[in-house]
Amino acid sequence: MSSADAESGADAFSHLGETVRAALSDRGFSTPTEPQRRAIPPLASGRNTLVIAPTGTGKTETAMLPVFDAIGQHREREGSTDGFCALYITPLRALNRDMRERLDWWGERLDIEIDVRHGDTTQYQRQKQANDPPDVLVTTPETLQAMLSGSKLRTALADVRHVIVDEVHELAASKRGAQLTVGLERLRLLSGAFQRIGLSATVGDPEAVAAFLTGSRVDAPESETDADRDFSVVEVDVGSRVEFSVIHPEITAEDDRLAGKLATTEEIASHVRVIREIVDDNESTLIFVNTRQTAEALGSRFKKLGEPIEVHHGSLSRDVRVDVEDRFKKGELDALVCTSSMELGIDVGRVDHVVQYGSPREVARLLQRVGRAGHRHDQVSRGTIITSHPDDTLESLAIARRAGEGLVESAGIHYGSLDVVANQIVGLVMDFGEVSGRRAYETVTRARPFHDLSEELFRAVVRELSSNRLLWLDEEADRLEKSGGTWQYYYANLSMIPDEESYEVHDMSSRTQVGTLDERFVVNFAAPGEVFIQRGEMWRINDIDEEEAKVNVAPIEDPAGEVPSWIGQEIPVPAAVANEVGELRGIAGSQFEHGAAQRAVAGDLCGRYPADAATLEPALDPIDRHVEAGFPLPTDRRICIESRGRTVRVDAAFGHEINETLGRLLSALVGQQTGSSVGMSVDPYRISFEVPQGVSAGVFRDILQSTDPDHLESYLELALKRSETLKFTLAQVAAKFGSLKRYQGRGRFGGDRLLEALEGTPVYDEAMREIFHRDLALEETADVLRRVQEGDLDLVVVGDVTPIGTTSRPSGQELLVPEKADASVIEAIEDRIHNDRVLLCCCHCKDWDHTTKVRRVREQPECPECGSTRVAALNPWADEVVSAVRADEKDDEQEKQTQRAYRAANLVQSHGKQAVIALAARGVGPHNAARIISKFREDEMEFYRDLLKQEREYARTQSFWD
Description:
By secondary structure, this protein is an alpha/beta fold. It contains 37 helices and 30 strands. Strands 1-8-2-7-6-3-5-4 form an eight-stranded parallel beta sheet, sandwiched between helices. A hairpin with a 4-residue loop joins strand 18 and strand 19. Helix 2 runs parallel beside helix 3 and helix 23 (about 600-605) crosses helix 24 (about 615-630). This is DEAD/DEAH box helicase. Keywords: ATP-binding, DNA damage, DNA repair, DNA-binding, Helicase, Hydrolase, Isomerase, Nucleotide-binding. Belongs to the Lhr helicase family. Lhr-Core subfamily.
């Protein structure tokens, strides 16, 4: 397994047959691109190969020309084949459409039939493919799962000799990819060995991804590795072909006028202006953002200015996405505001420039995105990162420098995911009707993510499936057979993407689908009359059809809309990037300590990073103020702990995952010591805690200095035990195991009961494994603790809050409305809260509860049963809290919920309807409600302004509150 050497000759096409070479000449391919020059020789020899090269350098042709040639040669030797010769697997349906269009010319010219199959393929077309298989089938991982169990299709799949996996890095980092690797082993049982080809623009650990693709045992002796699993890696340097500039826009006189026109701040206006200038300077520009919310908010600004710029993301309908892709390709649009879905190779024609709005968070993401630009032969791709905040700027500088050197993060392969094992065991039973446990185990463990799966754990998964009646297990005969639930389970779980209910959004005026909304957004926000943004336009909800899961809307002109909320985690900043930000702070801080001016320090850093002094100075300002105030500076080699009142903040430049791990450890152990819950929020450079009165920063220091790194995993498991994160993940994993039947619904089977029912099972183990893999960094955090305890990392308590500690990056919501919200926005917030629903529960007699809209609540609510004014105002779905209040004997969790209800009731008893309004706001809770109510104000608008501010804070930190 060695990287393929560069082909010394200029003409790699000589490795292809005469027919394909003639087609190349007709197509105008006279000279191979570098990926073609280096990869076609091993591919033409039939070798498994991972090809890593920038977007637009001909990777598709690199892979397919040798495959077309092999199909032609096979046809000459054997005559026509009855089945599929090659499968081209892509992670997105949109890529299927693109691949079909790109490959059609070659198919017609070489007399090779190419077709597409995915979830939307018509029944007629599917039947046609089963009866008369095309030579090349372009499909998705999920459709391959469905094909493997069809009798006619299994016959067609037996002829497969080549499998090409496009955007392999995208699949390697997900359970979809783990599922695909076992799917390929199931295919191998049908067809025998086949050539495996992987394509990607960026991969941080090529050998690991190539082994993931081929099932090669990277650490095993050659004698124990199948010869057909050996591979080559062809990697074309990406970093040398990209150029970046990082810009923090300066506010100009023009921005004041633009801010008024857009009803936003001058700062946001300056961002819009700079992006518009870049778009004007280029013919075609992609504007990447990190969230769909930001895409909608930024897109609405350009709509307001009448710019030919549209929005593109995964929650828009297929028709809308195809329309904007085609208009962009034709030159009718100057730019697209897009999210990660456009990182992959969707063909939108030539792209001159890429704008990244805000830090890209990862090197791989930046290279994928900027790599979309400059698609002419061997042209440099150019991109501009626009930042709005000191953390944003320093982080972008670190990422840009690392990208230039090709320092890409590892793929984060899912090893040992047990819900995938469960899914694929059922798949094998579907394939054969019955299969021995030994054969199933050997098939699963041939896939790279499961090489280390123990037989004992495999059998535990089989027993769980048997108890859920998804298969019959005959332990004595070691035989697995179909049961009544096998077929239904398998076809309901072809995908490993967690099931999330979504609502279609339909424009009543044009009778077209606009996009989709997440169920949580519809439940928590959507109601007739409410306004939101989608596709960069404002919509008012007319009605919601619960049975059809449809939201009917009409377009409006209104500046007070709310950005739709989609499920999705913040892109984590890797430790290496955060460390470099810490290092950068240290370099600048040292110069400030010696009296250097900001302009001089900025000028010095310009030589190392792609930015000018005007961009660097605002980013260096908090460091300068921090040093001037005499505080020790948090760097890559120093952790600082600061506190004021009930807030303790650990300044640690270790990235999201290590900080999340440290945060969960500290919040759990401090909570254990005090007997109270500890609120936590995390960013790559800070961990903020809300602690009980009297808890000092020294408590946090002592825990970091005394916690045994070797026992970290046990502490974290205890910390996660009752967390909402575990309950939510457990529900998703349980569905994939068939332990949580769909008809039950998560709402009818509470998280606590589910946890109690599944603890000690493979389902529970997998939920815990997934959280550790997805959110935490166990080994790296243990190393941080060791370094602290060995004195390699400084640990300093600084006392008061510091400039660095309080300079955290805001969320993308600031695009929607300015921080100082105007009267129309406050009116919208007031109107929304008054129309929200609230659950009223008597904490005196405990016999009465009632759900109603806030506006219908009396000025002083009272219980109609007993007349008490001790009435708690709760979330309308807080049934578990009501049950806890009524329970005679309570566990710890129920006791916490009861106390929360009592605090809410005391607040309502003292402050009446004002308390109900405060408690109905999102993420406020009794503690914050009491603080907001007690504040002196001259007018009611300030009360709602404070509620809005708290809602924003909650939106920024909600994923970290358990």
